[in-house]
Amino acid sequence: MTSGSRTIRVDTLARVEGEGSLYVKLVGERVADVKLKIYEPPRLFEAFLRGRHFSEAADITARICGICPIAYQMSAVHAIERALGIQIDPAVRLLRRLFYCGEWIESHTLHVYMLHAPDFLGYEDVIGMARDHREVVERALRLKKIGNRIVQLLGGREIHPVSAAVGGFSKVPTRNQLRELASDLEWALTASLETVQWTSNLEFPNFEQDYEFVALRHPDEYPFNEGRLASNRGLDIDAAEYEDHFREMHVKHSNALHSVLRGRGSYLVGPMARFNLNFDKLPAAAQQAAAKAGLQPPVKNPFRSIVIRAVELVFACAEALRVIQEYVPPSAARVVAPNRAGVGQAITEAPRGIIYHRYELDENGLILTAKIVPPTSQNQKRIEDDLREFAAQLVAWPLDEATWKCEQAIRNYDPCISCATHFLKLDVERQ
Amino acid sequence: MKVIGCGNAERGDDRAGLLVAERLRQLGFRAEAHFGDSLSLFEKWSAADRVVVVDAVMTGAPPGTVFAWDRELPHVPDGLSVSSHGFDIAKALELAQALEKLPAHLRIYGIEGRQFELGSNLSPEVERAVEAVVQRIAAQPF
């Protein structure tokens, strides 16, 4: 390798998001600079929401993401319910957990098998992997379909469910309708356990960081929609205090938005944060699977998050089975949501991590302001910091391999843009 | 024949496929919309079906250009589909092929789009192309 500097510059292909780019500058053995931009903030949606009635928020925000619409819906309805001061029926609460199980199953399966595993096994994409590992990919497709089935049953329409509403759901299933999911879910639980096993055998780079993990924490359960916001460094706040502790800053160089903990800096949200902060709330099957896979909290190697996602699949299947056993339909699909002025915030756990919503309503129920902070934007600074450290391990590698490893590192975080297999295009700059 | 229109209703010309499906449904054809990630697309058909998939594309051709491919994978050009979240159509179809899950008869229409930003409108060229594709499919069912 010659002396002087090398640049890994990766710009997106002409794709819709248009905003994924990575720039890594190597000078000799040193990582001189890293600039990452992978996120498009939902400012347009926040603007769309202004002037709309609160009953439209769930449906509108669900369109922000095709992979995790339920996460947006859940945060929206919880925030608005808080603003209005209304309580949901316990049966509805149970259904919302089931709804989220469906989304986690679908999203985590897609990421583990279709987007991330190919990196570990040396395949360009899942298509190459499917030729050599057909049963594995078919298992993944079947598992993903079961997640979609849950979402469809509750949401009425697969990708953009219309049924979630402020105060409950526009319609609720019967007990029998849920029971019909049981045999699929039993298969899914077995498949999830196999997934933990399968991912635990992958090869992981030796890379650990000292993260501040941020996730919801709940006294009784592995968190979805409720709990206080906590971290491994003493954070313990209510959703209403979120903006007192977190802020978004515009980063000049990349037009990206970095979310930071005030006075502290970058942080990490998502499965690894949840796992590390809530391990004791996982059902026994998930805890045992994790232990057998060699996972013990705190896990600090982000490459191992693929195994953690598999453990969360076990949780989601077990939780879904529990819900369909316990569910008794509520007397009303939803409680009355009156027009009332107020402000409400909520944080729920999307597959990728916490998502924060805040709404201000006027006395007619119209939205005055909306704020949405998705998980990928919160991880962006942390991903960049990871790359800065990780790229140091790659200085001697051939440029195309180093680029691929950087992509793999980004995919640890399952950011929305990771769905584009080759969103990073190589551009070499030599000084 | 089964028509599947893909796209994102919030992203300008990316709603082209959805509009084609909607129009054909109004005309009495078996047509449905498919949102978000394309991965589960091939669960929407069985081996015996005759399937038409319609989606917006970005190949650099003039906006409104209509492409048609008949089961010619993997020669589907790059740029097919602008699915913003998830597996794009070309990859989904490649995967279906690798798993031997393609239908016996498959035709893909691509409509070249111009604007895909969140909240943008449908371009006039694409609106015309949508109508042209609807007429083509309706006149000559696959």
Task: Kindly describe this structure.
The complex is a heterodimer of chains A (431) and B (142). Chain A has 431 residues and is α+β, with helices and mostly antiparallel strands. Chain A has two domains: 5-40 and 382-430; 43-379, Cytochrome-c3 Hydrogenase, chain B (Orthogonal Bundle). Chain A is 43% helix and 18% strand. Chain A is built from 14 helices and 14 strands. In chain A, strands 3-2-1-14 form a four-stranded antiparallel β-sheet, with helices on one face. In chain A, strand 9 (246-251) and strand 10 (256-261) form a beta hairpin. Chain A starts with a strand and ends with a strand. Chain B has 142 residues and is of the alpha/beta class. Chain B has a single domain (2-139), classed as HybD-like (Rossmann fold). Helix content of chain B is 26%, strand content 23%. Chain B is built from three helices and five strands, in the order βαβββαβα. In chain B, strands 2-1-3-5-4 form a five-stranded mixed β-sheet, covered by helices on one side. In chain B, helix 1 packs across helix 3 (124-139). Chain B starts with a strand and ends with a helix. Mean pLDDT of chain B is 81; it is low at 73-86. Chain A binds chain B through residues 14-17, 40, 42, 44-45, 48, 63, 65-67, 69, 110, 114, 125-127, 130-131, 134, 137-138, 141, 144-145, 148, 158-160, 416, 419-421, and chain B through 8-11, 14, 34-37, 39-40, 43, 58, 79, 82-88, 91, 94-95, 98-99, 116, 118-119.
Lay out the secondary structure.
The complex is a heterodimer of chains A (431) and B (142).
Chain A lengths: L4 E7 L9 E7 L2 E8 L5 H7 L7 H5 L7 H16 L5 H32 L4 H7 L1 H22 L8 E2 L2 E2 L5 H5 L2 H19 L13 E4 L10 E4 L4 E2 L4 H4 E6 L4 E6 L9 H8 L5 H9 L12 H22 L15 E9 L2 E9 L5 E7 L1 H17 L7 H13 L13 E6 L1
Antiparallel strand pairs in A: 1-2, 1-14, 2-3, 4-5, 6-7, 7-8, 9-10, 11-12, 12-13
Helix pairs in contact in A: 3-4, 4-6, 4-12, 4-14, 5-6, 6-8, 8-12, 11-12, 13-14
Chain B lengths: L1 E6 L8 H11 L4 E5 L14 E8 L8 E5 L18 H10 L6 E8 L11 H16 L3
Parallel strand pairs in B: 1-2, 1-3, 3-5
Antiparallel strand pairs in B: 4-5
Helix pairs in contact in B: 1-3
